[in-house]
Specification:
Distance between the termini of chain A: 53 Å
Shape of chain A: globular
Oligomer: heterodimer
Distance between the termini of chain B: 35 Å
Order of helices and strands of chain A: HEEHHHHHHHHHHH
Largest sheet of chain A: 2 strands, antiparallel
Number of strands of chain A: 2
Shape of chain B: globular
Radius of gyration of chain A: 25 Å
Strand order of the largest sheet of chain A: 1-2
Structural class of chain A: mainly alpha
Strand content of chain A: under 5%
Structural class of chain B: mainly alpha
Radius of gyration of chain B: 23 Å
Helix content of chain B: over 70%
């Protein structure tokens, strides 16, 4: 009877390892998300407390009041602009470090990853002191004589919000894009050049397709993180730059309408999950065709 | 073939340098202006002083926020390690129902908007016996930090040669001895690096903290509140300290990660 007991002990060990994190996540993560969905179908009483009377009102309000849909569309626009800029900025820097730099490559790689972890609030703050009315950019422009009046339009504008978000999320794009470039098989590039393709053609037809899954991964991160951002909008954005997460914040704060806030939050969550699912699939399909096909050819 | 200097290469390098500057310049500006002797952040800076560092240390609100943040970061990191480490080992070694689901769910708070996680926790923690308080913040941080340890340690476990553990078992070592003498030394640097990353993440977290905290402020929330009231150069000093501190922690974590790679 030695074997069964051994097995039984292994199951106990497994149980002791799995149960605590699984139960913790069930209670403090899965249940909250599920309850948020549930709360979006509840009503509030006269003083704003949530009561267990089922209703579709929050979803009806979400659908009929133009504020919510238009804020969502605005947030999508900002997130799309931020994502496009992050990718545009990441590609040349990642390319140079992956292909052109010979010395201190590891150091440079660490240098581009570090800002990813440097405090979000510090980076938002930096733009506030740079772009402010009496900020560093304005006083620099005055000092050099390029302008004779401080430029008001820098801070508290959609532009400031976009710049801030691009700065905060570019490192999230840089990392996967660099990794993707680094994994492009060098013999393929040489082959393309030997066959007479110019550098731009080689980049467009060989490097870019092979690195595409990495670019998608980075773009997804930037897009999803921008969609859910509410801090930069309060710090750098102006009165018109209301993001969807600010709406959630207000509904759980000053407006105190938790069911409606839950509905907006769930809507945001569904969009993010859908985006992650679609881009995850795209990465897998492209990765399967691109990278592996490329490796196969090199081996042959 | 040696690349000759030409317009295309020059443009590429110029773009790369400009992007690098865009990523780093704001951080450099914050650090430089933390030594600003004036109370407005304007160009050019007139001299250098430690005035705002002194003001920072004397600001009781900031200092108590800092102590609170460190305490929560330590607690959250401990929760993340205590739950993430066994989780990673179980996922690596065993097949069990719900394994894939566990691997996916644990990552959710890192992928989904922090604000949604924050309001979801705000709406349910009181029902679970955790009223909105510092305890709620601790539980919230612990929850999203499980993912850090779990993913980092799992990645390391996958690179460890399984024959080492088998050899230890074949030589008669009980499972716990094998764990402490073989497995743990193999993943030690991954555990330390996840602890450092978790600590840094917790120290900077706002969206979840914002909804779960009652009355007190953590450091980033204190800074956020100060920023909304207007600009105090004290924040320059705090921001410079945070930047230096997080860069140090991350470089350390990255080096520990590399050491593991070399093995």
């Amino acid at each position: 009877m030695k074997l069964p007991r051994f097995l039984a002990r292994r199951r106990w060990g497994l149980f002791l390892c799995v149960a605590p994190p699984a139960l913790w996540l069930l209670a403090f993560l899965v249940f909250p998300y599920a309850a948020l969905l549930g709360q979006s179908f509840l009503s509030t009483n006269a003083i704003g407390d949530v009561v267990f009377t089922p209703t579709l009102d929050p979803w009806r309000t979400l659908w009929t009041r133009p504020l919510y849909i238009s804020t969502l569309l605005y947030t999508f626009r900002i997130a799309a602009a931020v994502t496009a800029l992050c990718v545009l900025l990441s590609v040349p820097l990642a390319y140079v470090i992956a292909f052109k730099v010979k010395r201190h490559k590891q150091l440079l790689y660490t240098l581009i990853t570090v800002p990813l972890w440097v405090s979000y609030i510090v980076r938002a703050y930096a733009w506030k002191i740079i772009l402010g009315r009496e900020g560093i950019l304005n006083t620099f422009l005055l000092y050099t004589g390029l302008v004779d009046q401080p430029v008001e339009a820098f801070l508290y504008s959609p532009l400031a919000l976009t710049i801030g978000l691009v700065h905060i999320f570019t490192p999230f794009v840089l990392m996967p894009v660099y990794t993707a470039f680094e994994h492009v098989p060098r013999p393929l590039i040489e082959a393309s050049q030997d066959l007479g393709a110019g550098r731009l053609t080689t980049f467009r037809r060989v490097v870019l397709p092979l690195a595409f899954p990495g670019i998608i991964a980075g773009a997804t991160l930037a897009f999803v993180l921008s969609l859910g951002d509410f801090l930069s909008a309060t710090l750098l954005g102006g009165p018109d730059t209301l993001m969807i997460a600010n709406v959630v914040q207000n509904l759980f704060g000053t407006s105190d309408d938790r069911p409606l806030g839950s509905a907006v939050g769930i809507l945001l969550l569904v969009f993010v999950l859908a985006i992650l699912e679609v881009t995850g699939r795209a990465e897998r399909t492209l990765g399967g065709q691109g990278l592996n096909a490329g490796r196969g050819k090199v081996v042959e | 073939m040696k690349a000759r200097p030409d317009l295309l290469t020059a443009l590429l390098w110029a773009a790369a340098v400009a992007v690098f500057a865009f990523v780093y310049l704001p951080l450099v500006v914050v650090i430089v202006y933390s030594f600003n002797p004036d109370s407005v952040n304007s160009f050019p800076m007139r001299g250098a002083s430690l005035r705002w560092y002194r003001a920072m240390v004397e600001d009781e609100g900031l200092m108590s926020a800092l102590r609170l943040s460190v305490a929560i970061a330590l607690g959250g990191t401990a929760v993340g390690l205590l739950l993430g480490l066994p989780g990673a080992i179980a996922i690596h070694r065993h097949e069990f129902p719900g394994k894939r689901a566990l691997e996916r769910v644990v990552l959710l708070p890192l992928m989904l908007p922090g604000i949604v996680t924050g309001v979801a926790m705000l709406s349910t923690f009181p029902l679970l016996g955790v009223p909105v308080s510092l305890w709620a913040v601790l539980v919230g941080h612990g929850t999203f930090l499980i993912a850090i340890t779990l993913t980092q340690v799992l990645a390391r476990l996958k690179r460890i040669d399984p024959s080492l553990e088998e050899a230890s078992a074949d030589l008669g070592a009980p499972p716990l001895t094998t764990f402490f003498r073989v497995t743990l030394p193999g993943i030690r640097s991954a555990v330390i690096s996840s602890a450092l990353l978790s600590f840094t993440l917790s120290l900077d977290e706002i969206p979840v903290t914002f909804f779960l905290i009652a009355g007190d402020n953590t450091l980033p929330i204190e800074i956020w509140t100060m920023m909304r009231r207007g600009i105090s150069p004290k924040v320059n000093a705090v921001a410079a300290v945070i930047t230096a501190f997080s860069v140090a922690l991350i470089v350390l974590a990255a080096r520990l990660g590399e050491r593991g790679e070399e093995r």
